[in-house]
Design a protein that fits this description.
Blueprint lengths: L1 H12 L4 H8 L3 H14 L1 H17 L2 E2 L5 E2 L8 H39 L1 H4 L7
Antiparallel strand pairs: 1-2
Helix pairs in contact: 1-2, 2-3, 3-4, 4-5
Length: 130
């Protein structure tokens, strides 16, 4: 059940369609279509985010993460319909993955800066009310 929930959550956010969802969950295509539709009905802001992100990437010709980093989609040798599907999935994925990577970098850098500034004894003290 946990694996299937992850397949739905991550699959939807990374652009999986009803057919792909059905395959991943090992259910019929019609059930995959129904489940796919149901997720967007229950979470309309997810659908809006996906649509806005794809529209922005089409308009600007690039994608941005939450910190403004840009990625330009590669022009490869795929047929146009495959290229468009991949570009749309990348447009959804890049802001999420790029922002997550930035957050991890920040989380690794900030404690190190505090360690140098305050010394190891203050840095290693447990956090609590001050």
């Amino acid at each position: 059940m946990r694996r299937k929930a992850k397949e739905v959550n991550f699959g939807i956010m990374y652009g999986i369609g009803p057919f792909g969802l059905g395959n991943r969950l090992e259910i019929t295509q019609s059930r995959g279509e129904r489940d796919h539709r149901e997720v967007f009905r229950a979470l309309p802001k997810v659908k809006q985010y996906i649509n806005d992100t794809i529209a922005g990437a089409r308009r600007e010709g690039l994608r941005r993460d939450a910190h403004g980093a840009k990625a330009v989609p590669p022009r490869d040798q795929q047929p146009e319909h495959e290229h468009q599907g991949n570009a749309e999935r990348q447009a959804i994925n890049m802001p999420i993955q790029g922002t997550a990577a930035d957050m991890i970098k920040i989380a690794m850098i900030r404690p190190r800066r505090g360690h140098r500034r305050n010394g190891p004894e203050e840095q290693d003290a447990p956090a609590g009310p001050r």
